[in-house]
Specification:
Blueprint: E1 8-13, H1 22-33, E2 37-40, H2 52-62, E3 67-70, E4 73-74, H3 80-93, E5 100-103, H4 108-113, H5 121-139, E6 147-150, E7 155-159, E8 171-173, H6 178-187, E9 190-191, H7 202-216, E10 225-230, E11 233-234, E12 243-244, H8 246-260, E13 264-268, H9 272-297, H10 307-310, H11 324-327, H12 338-341, E14 353-355, H13 360-372, E15 381-384, E16 400-403, E17 410-414, E18 419-422, H14 428-436, H15 452-457, H16 465-468, E19 475-482, E20 487-491, H17 496-503, E21 527-528, E22 538-545
Helix pairs in contact: 1-2, 1-9, 3-5, 5-6, 6-7, 8-9
């Protein structure tokens, strides 16, 4: 069974404290070599180990790209509500590079000696389910009120929610027995066993149990990533599993991916030479072999959204036809980023999708797709720059939002003329910061969070307006994506009707007011307008002002 997940590779590093620098150096080496994930066992009762959470926090600052995870966190000695805040905090500090491995506990004598509650296997499963509910409840800041869960082993009574992790932080569960496997299917984001603890056929049986439990819970089994801790040695002659030349490793790991659904292989290795040989001679070959076989079989890649999120989609939109250039950044109901993008400063909304183009060409693609969906007729369309959208028109219910915050460049085009190019996705606070380095300013706004696109095309009232005029009085040129998808530059000499139309949209005078304090000129970029504009009215523009 191949679930179509991306093939990735990680390392399982012993958190030894003698020397304490060793696991840090190995994690940094793993990052340099190109591994995707660095993981560490968590045994707080082991005096020869560094505390795993302290080590992970240290590594968050000592690495830049590689993802980090406990493999797996010792839940009986990690209070769930505190663990939730710790995980979310580390995810925020690392820019979304943290993943949480959880287990129900083992080595109960050592746990009890550290003050933990001794549990039976069945109680351990129940405690893990309670803990996951608490952890996810702490992370869910969209719910109002304190979190209340009265479990048998873990409880919270009105705990404050938050912080919210930087991304949809996955919970991978170390599971072997049927009850734990069923729990993984109901609640887990990943299954994380160790190959050394498995017997022939255990992976297939485990997958079947997880899949059945997932389907019973209304989930797609492909939502659950399959990770596998592996150990072995490179030898000249092929032998037992993962005891042989790189070609044997490639063949066996490829089979585990294609036949048993494993997609993330975590190598148990404290040996830099083994780490390097694996990532250079095994990992690329496994990726290539799996990709080739998937093309032959026509295997569909696993989706990025859970089934519960897909059920929130608007029936009026054809999500499958969203242009490929926009799918990676598109946000829809159920996406992790959705709560932060659905509303504006003064209006709550529930758009069917938020498209986030990063270039004028992608803006044109977004508009073309919106027209295909019946934007302005059957489906609401909103354009949003970067500010708080005081008019309320930059969000909607069930429709499309084209959100331009990625178009936020601020470039000095000609310092001698104080000509500046500003993207519609920038905010005036950021513009002021950039221009302050030159001793310049632009007459616009009275609050740093106001978006360039919206305020510039609505006139640009600000603190400096009485003496230096409105923002539109200083516009020298605009770059506009029109409603028909064409990209047009307009100035006094190029498409003057469009240029003066942009400058006069707020009904203000077209004459320029002198700028005695600052002659800075803002620049071309994309600024949004009302979705109800006619075919040749701009839906996204760029402005240069002085």
């Amino acid at each position: 069974m191949d679930y179509g997940h991306e093939i990735e590779f990680g390392v399982f590093i012993t958190p030894t404290n003698a020397p304490a620098e060793q696991p840090v150096r190995l994690a940094q080496l793993a990052e340099q070599l190109g591994y995707d994930l660095a993981t560490f066992q968590d045994h707080p009762y082991q005096p020869a180990f560094l505390d795993t959470w302290t080590l992970l926090s240290y590594l968050g600052a000592a690495t830049e790209r590689i993802r980090l995870a406990p493999n797996v966190a010792n839940l009986p000695l990690r209070q769930p509500a505190v663990l939730a805040r710790s995980a979310a905090s580390l995810d925020l500090l690392t820019g979304g590079r943290f993943e949480l491995g959880l287990g129900s506990g083992g080595f109960w004598d050592a746990i009890a000696a550290m003050g933990g509650e001794r549990l039976t296997p069945g109680q351990g499963v129940d405690a893990l389910a309670e803990a996951i509910a608490i952890i996810r409840g702490i992370w869910d800041t969209t719910e109002r009120g304190g979190l209340r869960i009265d479990g048998e082993h873990h409880r919270v009574a009105g705990a404050k929610r938050g912080p919210r992790p930087a991304h949809r932080l996955p919970i991978h569960i170390g599971a072997y027995k049927p009850r734990m496997l069923r729990l993984t299917g109901r609640l887990g984001d990943g299954w994380l066993p160790s190959l050394g603890y498995l017997q022939p056929g255990d992976l297939a049986r485990g997958n079947a149990t997880i899949d059945a439990a997932a389907e019973k819970a209304g989930r797609d089994p492909r939502e659950i990533k399959r990770l596998l801790n592996i150990g072995g040695a490179f030898r000249d002659v092929a032998g037992s599993p993962l005891q042989g030349p790189p070609s044997q490793w490639v063949r066996e790991l490829t089979d585990l991916a294609l036949e048993d659904g494993m997609s993330t292989f975590i190598v148990m290795a404290d040996d830099p030479a083994l780490m390097q040989r694996f990532i250079e001679e095994v990992a690329p070959a496994v990726r290539a072999a799996v990709a080739a076989e998937r093309r032959e079989r026509g295997t569909e890649p696993a989706g990025s959204l859970p089934a519960a999120a897909l059920r929130l989609r608007s029936e009026a939109l054809d999500y499958a036809s969203i242009p490929a250039s926009l799918t990676a950044t598109a946000v829809e109901p159920g996406s992790w980023e959705y709560p932060e993008l659905q509303n504006t400063y003064l209006r709550g909304g529930a758009p069917g999708v938020v498209l986030r183009p990063t270039s004028p060409a992608q803006v044109a693609e977004a508009l073309a797709w919106a027209r295909e969906q019946g934007a302005g007729e059957r489906v609401p369309l909103s354009i949003r720059s970067a500010g708080h959208g005081i008019s309320g028109r930059s969000t909607n219910d069930g429709g499309i939002v084209i959100e331009l915050s990625a178009l936020d460049r601020i470039d000095v085009v000609d310092a001698s003329r104080r000509l500046v190019r500003i993207g519609a996705g920038a905010t005036w606070g950021r513009v002021a910061t950039v221009l302050d380095e030159h001793g310049w300013a632009i007459s616009s706004g009275d609050y740093g969070g106001v978006g360039v696109g919206g305020l510039a095309t609505a006139g640009g009232v600000g603190f400096l307006g009485r003496e230096h005029g409105l923002t539109i009085d200083h516009i020298e040129a605009v770059e506009v994506v029109l409603a028909d998808g064409s990209l047009v530059r307009a100035s006094r000499d190029e498409h003057p009707e469009l240029y003066w139309g942009m400058r006069g949209r707020a009904g203000t005078s077209a004459s320029r007011s002198p700028s005695r304090w600052s002659r800075s000129r803002s620049a071309r970029s994309a600024s949004p307008s009302s979705p109800s504009t006619r075919a040749r009215r701009p839906t996204s523009s760029s402005a240069s002002a002085r």
